[in-house]
Amino acid sequence: MNEKAALLVVDLQNDFCSGGALSVPNGEQVVEPVNRAAARFAALGLPVLASRDWHPPLTRHFRQYGGLWPIHCVQGSDGAAFHPGLRLPAGALLFSKGIDPEKDGYSAFEGVTGDGRPLESVLTDLGIEHLYLAGLATDYCVLATAMEAVRHGLVVTVLTDAVAGVDLVPGDSARAFQEMASAGVRLAVVDSL
Asked: In a designed cystine with 139, which of 24, 41, 147, 165 is the match (CB 3.0 to 4.6 A)?
């Protein structure tokens, strides 16, 4: 890793873990490798960022309003909170996405800080050239974030042991890894950092 790298933890929230409204199979198993990656970045003085789904109660993202998904990660709810085992370092930057009721908000690039700064702007200000991704879910928000990061000209590495997928259709996660790799996304494990 170099001084122009950052870690982005995608949507490691209660509703995507066991017992949540939209649980990812084994979603909570990524907490430990994510924590190791975050600690490694923090020890090197590199930025750690985190995105979260932060949906309004009424959004076309939800099944009952025409979307694909059950109600999840509603702003301020317990389900929208980060997994209690997640250890983000002090100073980690938080981005909320899915806040527009007309958009799904899969990519963390749709996220903004509390004062409205978009992810792309923050990455530019930090001089980030290489974005490492971890979190949930491989086949939706991680995939969308990785593909958009590539479109923005970033080098992207997905930490494969620190992500898990929904697999709404069996094999979706494997296909997501293939799609990312075909776009030039690198695949690595946390211990290789």
From this structure: 165
